[in-house]
Structures are given as structure tokens and as C-alpha cells.
Amino acid sequence: GARGGRMAAEGDVELELETEPNGSGGGSDGASGRAAEKPRKHDSGAADLERVTDYAEEKEIQSSNLETAMSVIGDRRSREQKAKQEREKELAKVTIKKEDLELIMTEMEISRAAAERSLREHMGNVVEALITLTN
Asked: How far apart are CA 82 and CA 77, in angstroms?
């Protein structure tokens, strides 16, 4: 309430200072012109304040939704992580040939890790791995 009004008033003072050089040439005329503008500026200040308040409330709502979403995502992530670890164990068991790995790396111009992963996913079948990588 009161504080919001004071903030808008301070804004008005700053705005007046900015408009002064243009209005000062008119003398008393400029002064009356500025006085007439004042109520309008004040209203816009209140409207801005209202907008800020709405925005703050919206953010609060979003953040509570976000927390819920994050916990849901967290649960899903930990499940996915477990599944991934299982998959990595399975993939680690797959035997791959060094020359197949090097072939994929040179042909596809990808990192050793990416090439190895692709090979393992295709149970060491270099042809299938290359087909998947080219698609």
C-alpha cells in the first residue's frame, strides 16, 4: 500500500528530471504541462506494481509445481539409472574385437567410447553397429 505509492512517486521524480530539459524552454508553460502529466504517470506506476505482484505470485505457483515435477523426475531418474547400470553390466560382458572398434572409429569419425558403446549394443556385430550409426 503506502510503500508502493512512495516507490511510484520516486519514479515520478526521476521521470520529471528527465523531461525537464525539453520543458524548461517553455518556462511556466512547461511547468504546468508537467503537472498535468503527473497523475497519469502515477497510475501507470500502480499498474506496473500490480503486474509485478501478479508475476511474483505466478512464480510461486510455478516453483511449487516445479518441486513436484522434480521429485517425480528424480524417482524416474533413479529407476532409469538402475536400469542403465544393469544394461551397462550386460554390455560390459559383450566381447568386442579391437579391429572392429578401430574400424568404426575411423569410418564414422566418432570417439572410442561411442564406437565401443555401439559395438557392445550390437553384441559385437560390426556390420549392425555401422548400419545403425549411418542411419
From this structure: 9
Q: What integer is the mean pLDDT of 17-44?
A: 49
User: What does each C-alpha distance from 106 to 9, 49, 115 come to in angstroms?
Assistant: 69, 61, 9
Q: Determine how many CB atoms are found less than 10 A away from the CB of residue 126.
A: 19
What is the Cα Rg of the chain in Å? 33
- Closest by CA to 132, choosing from 98, 109, 112, 104, is 104
Exposure of 135 in the CB half-sphere (CA atoms within 13 A): 7
Beta carbons within 10 angstroms of residue 123's beta carbon: 14
Query: Whole-structure pTM over 0.70, yes or no?
Result: no
Write out pLDDT tens, residues 49-59: 667 666 666 66
Pull the grid cell for residue 124.
559385437
